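Record 1 of the preview.
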Amino acid sequence: MIMVRVLFFSLFGYLCGSILFADLFSKLFHKDILTPSKDQNPGVTNAFMYGGFWCGVCTLLGDVLKGFLPVFLLTLGAPVQSLDWRYALALAAPVLGHAFPVFHRFRGGKGIAATFGCLLGLFPYPLPFVLFAAVFIFFSVVLKISPHFYRTISTYLATAILLPFLRVPMAVCGAYLIMAATVCLRLHLSQEERERMTVKLAWKR
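->
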């Protein structure tokens, strides 16, 4: 019974993730967000930059929701701490769908907003979401890593290392590793320019 539930939510989460809201809302707002962008990424950043404020907001909400909803429904009525390793794929499925969407010839976005959504879906277990957000903020405003390409990879790797030390359930650790590997692979495959990596403290110029 558990495996049927896991398989169902793995497929449901993947299909939800495969809906690229940046593509959907850019068409609704009659904006081209891919042609002028450097990385050709159908994600939140380009939706804001080239689609405008409302296109970006709608895309952000959609990408977070498609991660949140499948995970929240999966864990509804079952404490996150009770989930075993078999749930890992289902918890990570929306990010896999976003990065490699079946509806878009497996060419998707990076999956950062979808990751936030999946971690939010673990509510009322906030620790993974808080840690991921804190590490992202730390590498953005305290120990500033530039460009965004390296900041994202550093955030995912650092969070993956820290999660086991906080006694996060095996299913969540496994799911996060799948999400991190997916995002890093999508970044590697992207057309984003690889500028030189810089690291500096926020109070030093």
